[in-house]
Amino acid sequence: MARTTTEAARVAPEVMARYEAVIGLEVHAQLQTETKAFCGCSTKFGAAPNSNTCPVCLGLPGALPVLNKRALELALRASLALGCKIEQRSRFARKNYFYPDLPKGYQISMYELPLATGGGIEIEVAGETKRVRITRLHMEDDAGKSLHEGFPDSDRWSHIDFNRCGVPLVEIVSEPDLRSAAQAYAYLTTLKQILEYTEVSDCNMEEGSLRCDANVSVRLRGEPRFGTKTEVKNLNSFRYLTHALEYEIERQIGVLESGGTIVQETRLWNVSLGRTEPMRSKEFAHDYRYFPDPDLLPVSPSDAMLRDVRHSMPELPAERTARLLADYGITPYDAGVLTSTRALADYFEAVVKRGSSPKAAANWISVELLRHLKDAGQEISACPVSPSALAELLGSIEQGEITSASGKKVFARMFSTGKPPAEIIAAEGLRQITDGGAIERIVRELVSKHPENVAKYRSGNEGVFQFFVGQVMRETRRQANPQTVNEILKRVLAE
């Protein structure tokens, strides 16, 4: 039976609840190497079109590929970080298809003998932990990029940039263990975090360093058999992944509920229209005609190489979270925020090493610093406030030199100007007033001006006390030491 015309119709929540989704993700991550997988061309992003090419990555006759050792080491590191079993023998194969951005007419990949198998990732969604199994991890090289210009009512041009041809990738294929868009989001987030921590990939989705395809099907809850799956491509952001899966799950349920049949096909996520659209059906799917690449030897990592890879393995996210909790006594929430990226965790530890209280550093980074970075559209790597400068500011607050409220003003100025805190505090006269005599003179003057509120306080209306605190802080431009203000006010009002 063909698909019905009501694919995109809204499905009632009670109908949706009768079904469950079955999702598996295929993630391509660009390995963080300086040169390509099988030649010495640069992998630098943003170079002039077709400037980072050579006979090998262009597939010219007589050119022979040589495996990049660093790419293999990073692929092995990823395999170990994900708990995979590294196979004693893997082999490159030619994946044959014809497209303008594939000059060789085939992609070098791995097929029946992948680099690693098994493994998995622990994710947490809505307070529940779930293990998502990994089927395989294999190496391959990337294709080029097609660039299209023009409009329907004018000349159209297509350009090919071969700079990306031969860039080293790992493909990480999960088992169909995911049951919702939220779980898929958590899986991809956790995988990205691991790849970044281990410096396997920079995972820059805007530059194409991390790309994801999803295999999606639905079935009635309790049904052991999988439904017919569709593959959804063009998921180049976490937000698009979530929206595309939510749409596709509802679309498939709508088709089944209306008496239709799901067609196994590849679909694209149309960002502007917010829907998945057919790309090709299974009857037109490629027959890749895999066969072993005759120019490349099988891959058999030596014991020495595996020892070196294990020895160079950086601290993984879960390990670092546990260590921050144990070493610094911060809350689990703050530990989770601070370890969301390796750079942010490094920044936090650098602030603490420069003398800051761990709890104060965690609070300021989790709230003030991340808010300013978000507003400025910047990453922590581009933060204009150095760890030593933040530690100095927090020291000024802790020592009573400035109030916490003034500290926020100083931090904002530090972020916008890059100036050190001491210079900003001096220039803007923000140093905290701790002179008890000066504060008492202000208190007595205010008390004499508001006898009616003094009478209310002395009759038991303690809420009036905050009125006097506010008046003192206003008179001192919020620079008076709050503790000193409270102590003096209580004494004077009790006289």
Question: How would you sum up this structure in a few lines?
Answer:
By secondary structure, the chain is an alpha+beta fold. 39% of the residues lie in helices and 19% in strands.
Describe this structure in words.
The chain has 495 residues and is of the alpha+beta class. The chain folds into three domains: 280 residues, no CATH class; 113 residues, no CATH class; 59 residues, Arc Repressor Mutant, subunit A, CATH 1.10.10. 39% of the residues lie in helices and 19% in strands. It is built from 16 helices and 15 strands. Strands 1, 2, 5, 6, 7, 10, 11, 12, 13 and 14 form a ten-stranded mixed sheet that branches. It has a three-stranded antiparallel sheet with strand order 4-3-15, with no helix packed on it. Strands 8-9 form a two-stranded antiparallel sheet. A hairpin with a 2-residue loop joins strand 6 and strand 7. Helix 10 packs antiparallel against helix 11, helix 13 crosses helix 15 and helix 13 packs across helix 16. The longest helix has 20 residues. The chain is elongated.
